[in-house]
Amino acid sequence: MTAPPERPPAPPERPTSQQTPGFGVPFLPLRGLEVAGGRFIGRTKLAIGALYWVPWLALSRRAAVSSGVTREIETLGLGALRLVVSASVLVGLIATFQVAYQLKSFGAQVLSAQTIGWFTARELGPLVAALLIVSRSASAIAGEFASMSANAEIDALRAMGLDPVKYLVAPKLAALLIVLPAMTVFCIFFIEVGVLIGNLLLGVTANHVLADIRGSLQVRDILVGTGKSMIFGLVLGVIAADEGLSIERRVSAIGEAATRSVMFCMIAILTVDTLVNAIFYFIPSLV
């Protein structure tokens, strides 16, 4: 009677996710840093690739190319115009009432328009415009690309020798680089309209408010705000596109990508805004 065959040796146990072998430190934070670093590198490559094709979109005379960018501008910009106008007026009213309340104890509530003007051009305008476009369009961009990824349409484009970054991401990025500065100018204007309405409700004359607004606003401040908005547009387009293009092939991943895109875009825009403001503070010559 033959002896039963010997069992193969058991494979060595894999280290758990709580600890890295040889190190007495938790593994999960290191894994998180690794994943975050990989996503940052991937998004940087995507941004460089999309920016590489933006001049081609701007200079191309092909009707299909120019109409694609025009369509994205209409979708991302003109479709959000009513939202931007109404929200900006409300932000101007809120800012006026809050600043006037604080200045009331000093008997200087008539200076609320002058106090808000500079801050509106550099901070409120670009930030409100960016967050409104994020809330409206980031999920739409990510959801569109995620749906195409789940249905293997992105793979079909690559199989035909077409670059998805060139034909899908670059037009949206080009549109955002145009739309967000324009929306920022609209935001600045209509926030000041809200400031004017708020001061009229507080009993300040229109001539006094308009004079304060003209004295507090400078072209340089508006240029700084629109420059910020271009950076916000780049961040928004790259993160939303990356979230949509990097999903797994399942239907539930489409909603997850849309949710993550809004969350990551908001955090990234606030982070970039903080860094820019810190640079302006520590290097006053740039202001």
Radius of gyration: 25 Å
Number of strands: 0
How many domains in all?
1
Give the percentage of residues in beta strands.
under 5%
Largest beta-sheet characterization:
none
What integer is the average pLDDT? 83
Low-confidence spans: 14-28
The separation of the N and C termini measures: 92 Å
Structural class: mainly alpha
> Based on CA inertia axes, which overall geometry fits?
elongated
Number of helical regions:
9
Helix content: over 70%
What is this structure, in a nutshell?
The protein has 9 helices and no strands. It has helices at residues 28-59, 63-76, 81-104, 112-150, 153-159, 164-201, 206-216, 219-245, 252-282.
Provide structural commentary.
The protein is an all-alpha fold and 287 residues long. It has helices spanning 28-59, 63-76, 81-104, 112-150, 153-159, 164-201, 206-216, 219-245, 252-282. The radius of gyration is 25 Å and the shape is elongated.
Write a concise keyword list for the protein shown above.
287 residues, mainly alpha, elongated
Task: Walk me through the topology.
Elements (H helix, E strand, L loop, with lengths): L27 H32 L3 H14 L4 H24 L7 H39 L2 H7 L4 H38 L4 H11 L2 H27 L6 H31 L5
Helix pairs in contact: 1-6, 1-8, 2-6, 3-4, 3-6, 4-6, 4-7, 4-8, 4-9, 6-7, 6-8, 8-9
